[in-house]
Amino acid sequence: MATLTLLQAVNDCLKTEMRRDANVVVLGEDVGINGGVFRATEGLQAEFGGDRVIDTPLAESGIIGAAIGMALYGLRPVPEIQFMDFIYPAFDQIVSEAAKLRYRSGGQFPCPMVIRTPYGGGIKGGHYHSQSSEAYFCHTPGLQVVVPSTPYDTKGLLASCIRGEDPVLFLEPKRVYRSVKGEVPEGEYTVPIGKLAIPREGTQVTIVAWGSMTHIALEAAEKAQTEKGISCEVLDLRSLVPLDKQALLASVKKTGRVVVIGEAPRTGGYAGEISAIIAEEAIEYMEAPIVRVTGFDTPFPYTLEHAYMPNAGRVLKAIETVVNF
Question: Which of 52, 58, 67, 301 sits most deeply, having the most CB atoms within 10 A of its CB?
Fold first, then answer.
């Protein structure tokens, strides 16, 4: 079993799925000869050729529009948007077309496509290369939104998305592209969409996170245990839509205290949706109010990136708040 970075796991999965299924194609800006801005598609065009690994113009609406047409005619396109910040010119194609096709055709025309895009801060990208706008897409029926945090899950979840019949927004936490490593099986395997992971079990506080924030949650949970004697359970959602609500509520009912971490701005963020679900369906089990640790309601800053993004210290303070309520 190889030890890979999260970025290498993306590349490995794409190669594996393209070898398995000739209908899988990759398209996007610089994905071919250059192998992508982060080198996620490095080597693909050399192996599979320019007809299956397509360098496109700098036109996000065109990339997604072309991918929708490919999906309707039997291909399984995996379009890449270089940064999530650049996805907005294609917003109408995604939410008004791709997300609606199965419904508007009475189930006759699925739209099997996976939109890969790096998201989030942590690489000094400033306000045009650091956004976390997953909530926009979670709000759209017909789309799946998947966010891995480990190399193993990245390969397995991406494979499941490519083999599925629905459009997926596959968000890759670029902050941990190269810093997180883990064992990844060679060859084919899948991780089911819609099932959260519990990388750390605990009894007093449930910490809910996804993507790179999962690693912040684990760091804070370790600090809470060693410095304060507080036992925290960490949930890695992995899939925002569909959400593993059953496992989420089971953990909440066990601990009675919840901290939700999301690096997006606070207002309207997906952390608020998680909080609402818990308040509606598990309020009688709660020992304290739900606390959110998020980004702030400002554009993403460059020089103050470290202060904007949730860190273990901010999460530890939230843990103490719910335990001492």
Answer: 67
